[in-house]
Every structure is written in structure tokens, then in C-alpha cells.
Hints:
Rossmann fold
Amino acid sequence: MSSEARGGWLLKMNAFGQGALAFFLLISSLGAAPRNAWVATWAASPEPVDVSPDEPLLNIEDQTVRERVRVSVGGVEMRLRLSNEYGSTPLLVGSVTVAIPNQPGSVRTGSIQTVLFAGRKSVTIPPGAPVLSDALAFPVAAGADLSVSLYFPKRVATPTLHAYAFKRAVVSPHGDHTGAEKIEGGAVTESSISLSAVLVPAQPSQRLVVAFGDSITDGDGSTLDADHNWPSDFARRLAKTSETSSLAVVNAGIVGNRLLSDGFGVSASFGVSALKRFDRDALAVPGVTHIVLLEGVNDIGFPGAQLQGRPLAAVADAPTAGDVINAYLQLIARAHAHGLKLIGGTITPFEGVDLPGYYTPSKEETRQAVNKWIRSSGSFDGVIDFDAILRDPAHPTRLFPPFSSPDHLHPNDAGYRAIADAVDLALLN
């Protein structure tokens, strides 16, 4: 090859190499960790509703709902996730604002900011779908309370709620009150509507724990407006040290929820089964790295039990220990397929529960068999022994009285705090 030909060939190869390098860098960037990632700092699992003339959120039309949440980690920006996942028609949200709350119906002067959706104040959410807002420059500190006001111009035929928020929200008289510092009059509810998550910008190597479960995760038995469910108490504990202060915690509990069965027919607000909602409420939560699972007590307790004279489930529907364990194995497999760690929680004692038929000696045998498997099988990525934390040393089939609410099923504030204090932080590595 002549020197001229060799020179031309080298120039072509050099050009090819530069192009290949650019292509490689492009492909590498596509496979790298995403920029501008977000992490959930608060969440509530969407639920369908039961027909109730006493619930003001079931009769919303040309009204504003002002509700409050407490975030776990902070950020300089935020985004809101709104849900119409149980709606049968499109949901028009006319305006949304965020602010720093004073009381359930009032906010700090000068703190109100408008949330936009694709640059607009209003958004229509298709039935069965959620929507994510634009990013809003609204700095929020770890553990801070946030007020969110939503105006619904038209009648909300089938709202998507979180039935037991254990926090008061205000439903206004008619009109758009999202920009008002105080909502006068109206009604008060302990449920929330549409809002299902608050996101903040994710930090490098940030971890997020999704507490997934039933009423003991949701916080039944805790003090109203105090955020003393165990996930919130755990977030407070994590915020006290620099090593764990960036670890986010969100609550995906639903009162009455079960692993294997839906709430429909008993109470729609008990939600669909854990097996059905696990992807949405755990695996798909932005930033999730760990899931703590505490479910199964209602699967065992509901069959043959009654609530206000209504059967919770037929005796024939009683699961075996193997049925419950197989549900756990399925959730473990699904979490591991996403590269997530699933930490199992033992089922807590329930003798003495004030629901006829909820406790029987045979149900206690099932609980003990399931707990033995949780502790010894090695199938979970770790175990939190809720049973050992909460049981009465003198009567292990009952809750320890200082940790028990009056119904003998749910912990009180002290019990939830005991759970939060007992979690081994090494499980979250």
C-alpha cells in the first residue's frame, strides 16, 4: 500500500473510531443511573370507597379539600402524585396548592404555592390512572408537615380515597379555596382523597423503605393527628443520626387488608389483596430499595368473625398456614425480580380482640405455624419480630397491655414506638 493510500485509510479509521466512541458514550449514558431521579417521601395506598352518607368525601362537588401529610426526608423541590385509580369517570382537578399548615384548615401566611400539571393549573385524570405533577420549587425539611389543597369543580362520582388517614382534613363550602389561608366552615373528615404520594429529588445511593401491610402498618389505634404509626416513628428515629437521616420511609398500609382476598363484599375500603396491589404500592414506588411486609393477621382472623353483625369472611375461607406462606413466597419472588429486599414481619397476637369469632385456638395454631416459618425459613431477606416486640410475656397470645389499644388487636402509641425502636438498622443495608 502506498503512503498516500495508507494515510487515507488511517484517516477513515480515525473517523470511524471517533464515531464509535460517540456511539458508545451515548449507549453508556442510556444505561447509567437516571439523572433527575425522584424518591417518595410520603405515600398513602389508594382505596375504593364504601357507600356512606356520613362521609363528606363521597359527596364532593365544587369544593376544596385541604389535607395534611408529614414527609420523611426533605428536598428543595417536590412533585405530587394524584390518583383516580378507582374512578369510573375522568376526574377534573381544577387547582392544587401546597403550603405549610398551622391547623387542619389553615396555613402559614405567604406559604401557598400553586402546583402545575404540564404547565397548567388544572388537570383531568382518566379513570383508573394516576397523574404526576410538574416539579415545584418548594423546599421542605425532613419530618415537616405539608398542607395540600385540591379543588374539584365537578361532582366526584367515584372518588379514590385513603379511608383511614388518622389525620383530619377539611372539606370546604362551595368554591375554590386552594388560595385561602384559612378555610372557614365546611366539614371535617379523617380520610384523604386523590393524593397518593409526595416525591422529592433523590440523593446519590439513597434508600427507601416501603412499610407494606394492614391496619397495624396504617396506624389504627394511634392518636389522631399525631402521626404515631410505626413507619412515622421509625422515620423520626432515622432522622436523629446523620448516617440514616437520608433514608426515606413511606406507609403502604390499609386497614383491613389481607394477603389473599379483596375487601369487596366485606368493606371495599379494605382494599384489594396484597397479592394484587403489591406492584403498585411497593414495587413501583419511586426509589424503593427495601420493603417491610406485615400482613396475614386478617387472613387468619376474618373467617367466622363478625363486624357490627356482618360476617367478615366465611369459615370455609379460612387459610392454612401453607396458604399464607405461599403468598409470602410469591411476594418475595416478585420483590427479588426487581432487585429489592423484602423483610418479613411476624404476625402479632390477637387473643381478646373485641370482634366475635376473630380469635380461636385453631387460628392461634395457624399464627404460630406461620411465625415459625417466617423466623426459621430464611426465605425473607431479614425478619422483624413484631410478635416478640408486642406480646405479653405473661400471656403470649395477647398484646402486652402497656402496648395495646382497647380493641386488643392494634398497638397504641407506645406499642408503635416500641416497634420503631426495635428495628435492626442493619436490615436496611
